[in-house]
Amino acid sequence: MIRSTLIAGATAAALVGSASLAPAESYRDSDTQMSVVQNLDIDRYMGTWYEIARFPNRFEQGCEGVTADYARTGDGEISVVNTCHKGAPDGPVEQAEGKAELVAPGRLKVSFVPWLPFARGDYWVLHVDPAYSVAVVGEPSGKTGWILARSPQISAAKRAEAEAALERNGYDPSQLRDVLHR
């Protein structure tokens, strides 16, 4: 397995909307108030999530077979390991390792650049189904957003539920890009 940690400045800038070096497209109407999962059970959220769909962004360009692994650390933080297969679901592996912190109900701050403590991006959980099998994540600027699941595919009904959560939060689901998995 090829492993490379992606901590370049461009990646950090892409993760933190306010620190972006170049303007990124917004996929949501910022006049719509966002609502997060107020009763998010962070321990149930831990584990592996498959990226089902995302709004296009620079730092995941060419990524397929994407997963995100969340785990509690001994210091009270959450470790985050994002895995991307470049070009195809079985392509070369690249990983980004970061840290997350729960800062309010349903709201996390995530950083993939440990030496830049101010470079933390918003990661808001907008929806999670009762079984914690599908989740929707976004952030206020609307430059990023994801549909995540515990398995590489979801039903049409679960997809519609996830897209409805995005719409309620001002996102345009027609701009989503599906992620290929093996």
From TrEMBL:
Family matches, as InterPro entries: Calycin (IPR012674), Lipocalin_ApoD (IPR022271), Lipocalin_bac (IPR002446), Lipocalin_Blc-like_dom (IPR047202), Lipocalin_CS (IPR022272), Lipocln_cytosolic_FA-bd_dom (IPR000566)
Major subcellular location class: membrane
Any Gene Ontology biological process: response to stress
Signal among keywords: yes
GO CC terms, sorted: cell outer membrane
Keyword field: Cell outer membrane, Lipid-binding, Lipoprotein, Membrane, Signal
Role summary: Involved in the storage or transport of lipids necessary for membrane maintenance under stressful conditions. Displays a binding preference for lysophospholipids.
Description of how the protein assembles with itself and partners: Homodimer.
Protein name: Outer membrane lipoprotein Blc
